[in-house]
Design a protein that fits this description.
The protein has 74 residues and is an alpha+beta fold. It has three helices and four strands. The protein has a two-stranded antiparallel ribbon. A two-stranded parallel ribbon has the order 2-4. The longest helix is centred in the first third of the chain and has 15 residues.
């Protein structure tokens, strides 16, 4: 019983930590960005909003090409 309770607490803690990403608040925006100052967001003519990674992905947004290239070069 203690193991089950411990497992539930760990799962709850992990689900509370949401990864924050940034998106352009435009109906045509298709990308999300981990960095608020990403050069891919410079062309956004609307507001830049903070959201969760899961919310961005659920709205079919994909990682910005600039940030993808940076991650591949690491």
């Amino acid at each position: 019983m203690k193991k089950l309770l411990f497992l539930l607490v760990v799962v709850k803690i992990m689900s509370c930590t949401q990864v924050v990403v940034y998106v352009c608040d435009s109906k045509n925006a298709m990308k999300y960005h981990f960095n608020e100052n990403c050069r891919g967001l410079k062309s956004c003519q609307h507001h830049i909003v903070k959201t969760t990674l899961s919310a961005a992905r659920s709205s079919n947004k994909t990682l910005c090409q600039w940030e993808r290239k940076q991650r591949e070069n690491r």
